[in-house]
Specification:
Oligomer: heterodimer
Shape of chain B: globular
Distance between the termini of chain B: 31 Å
Structural class of chain B: alpha/beta
Largest sheet of chain B: 5 strands, parallel
Strand order of the largest sheet of chain B: 6-7-8-3-9
Strand content of chain A: under 5%
Number of helices of chain A: 9
Number of domains of chain B: 2
CATH class of the largest domain in chain B: Alpha Beta
Number of strands of chain B: 9
Radius of gyration of chain A: 19 Å
Distance between the termini of chain A: 32 Å
Structural class of chain A: mainly alpha
Helix content of chain A: over 70%
Largest interface: A-B, 34 and 40 residues
Order of helices and strands of chain A: HHHHHHHHH
Strand content of chain B: 25-35%
Largest sheet of chain A: none
CATH topology of the largest domain in chain B: Rossmann fold
Chain lengths: 232, 204
């Protein structure tokens, strides 16, 4: 055995490793992934059924309903982000690995988004059709949801990390995340509403993109710090 | 010469109870530190403190002569951790788990087949870990130790759930690691049959 420290795999391989592992886990347990997606689809398709087929009414409430459903679906799935890693001891291994925890936290959040946020973006056009939304709004909806769900996964990972040691931390998690999620909800829903009346939407999209960048750069550091605290 | 890893004036409280106070240890390459003590005496806490998972009330860990605080990265490249919880995913099979391990740690890719054969796991690589017995899962955790190139092994109760063959395997694997110049810190309340340079810390 040598007297020097062994080489550490590259940051990229650590990041890709954890994203790939989480996608693989989701593939082996599809129920965990499909639950929030079903929730999203159910809530947002039940509204048109309950409110009646008036396309004017549906068009005006559609963006809000879809966005609220997306936010709640994200909160629902964020809860379990670190719980299984905490319970089976994988979290200790992550904390003790030579890879920076920030990179691994970013990997966890991106993995969560690929598994639970991206499917939401993909099925959102179908939901939008049931609300009689015009074509350009469907595109705006998908773009805003893209940035919005990514921000939610990243900021949500901070809350999930803070509550990982607590049993039944669901309510606390939602309380912690909601203030950070409000701008996403307000700008997301409003931007889509504006697009239904042919108003300019780029400002809202720019804001969501900027907010998403803020989440990408800040959230992994906060998540890493939170994981160290709550795993003591 | 500086010790590879040493602890100075360590003190830890759990609630109002002082688990240990002014505890000292120093470990050179090729040495084994056995942490002894009854249940609840703070063996696991001491190990977690050394690894940096929890903070001591007082005292410092030194790695290669320098304080560890702020330089965990270099230490962790050399650390392999083995605890009550195996730290693998139940839903993935052995190879998928090891593949993830490979992206985190230094990893001896060439000897995977040999190590799995030695641990009696070579026919179980396609099964999800949840269908393995508790003892087999411990052997999977042993595979992680054998495949890592880290110099310091930290093991918390390595004999839990293992049969007598498994126990002698742990003894043999540890002795080899020490003979190769590695170090280990092992918390246990069971006797170890190790050939090598052994130090002891007793917690009461």
């Amino acid at each position: 055995m040598t007297d020097t420290a062994p080489p550490v795999p590259s940051l990229w391989s650590g990041f890709i490793g954890i994203v790939r592992r989480d996608i693989l886990l989701a593939w082996k347990r599809p129920g965990d992934v499909l639950n929030p997606l079903f929730f999203f689809a159910m809530v947002s398709t039940l509204f048109p059924l309950a409110l009646g087929p008036s396309s004017e009414q549906l068009g005006s409430i559609g963006p809000g309903v879809i966005w609220v459903a997306a936010l709640l679906a994200a909160l629902l799935s964020l809860n379990s982000l670190f719980v299984s890693d905490f319970e089976d001891g994988s979290l200790d291994q992550l904390l003790l690995s030579p890879q920076p925890l920030t990179v691994l936290a970013l990997g966890k959040a991106i993995g969560h988004w690929i598994v639970s946020g991206l499917p939401l973006v993909v099925i959102s056009p179908l939901i939008a059709i049931s609300f009689h939304m015009p074509d350009q709004s469907i595109k705006v909806m998908a773009v805003t949801l893209f940035f919005g769900t990514l921000s939610l996964s990243l900021f949500g990972s901070i809350g999930a990390a803070l509550t990982v040691g607590l049993h039944r931390g669901t309510a606390l998690l939602s309380l912690l995340i909601l203030p950070l999620a409000m701008p996403v909800l307000i700008f997301g829903a409003r931007t889509v509403s504006l697009s239904t009346s042919d108003d300019a939407v780029s400002a809202g999209i720019y804001f969501l993109a900027a907010y998403c960048m803020l989440a990408l750069t800040l959230a992994p550091f906060a998540t890493a710090a939170a994981l160290r605290i709550s795993n003591e | 010469m500086n010790a590879l890893i040493s602890g100075h004036d360590l003190c830890l409280f759990r609630g109002d109870k002082c688990l240990f106070d002014s505890l000292e240890f120093a470990l050179n390459p090729g040495q084994l530190l056995i942490v002894e003590g009854s249940n609840g005496s703070g063996k696991t806490s001491l190990l977690r403190g050394i690894a940096g998972l929890l903070e001591f009330e007082q005292g410092e860990i030194h790695w290669e002569g320098n304080p560890l605080r702020g330089h965990y990265q270099a230490f962790r490249a050399d650390l392999t951790w083995f605890a009550h919880k195996v730290g693998f995913k139940d839903d993935l099979n052995l190879l998928e788990n090891l593949r993830f391990e490979q992206s985190l740690h230094s990893f001896d890719e060439g000897s995977v087949t040999a190590v799995l054969a030695r641990l009696g796991l070579d026919l179980l690589t396609e099964l999800p870990l949840r269908s393995l017995s508790a003892g087999q899962q411990r052997r999977v955790a042993l595979a992680r130790m054998l495949l890592s190139k880290g110099r310091v092994w930290m093991m918390d109760e390595p004999f839990t759930n293992l049969d007598s063959a498994g126990r002698s395997l742990v003894d043999a694997v540890l002795s080899e690691h020490l003979a190769n110049g590695g170090s280990a810190i092992v918390a246990t309340h069971q006797p170890l049959e190790i050939v090598g340079d052994v130090k002891r810390v007793s917690l009461s």
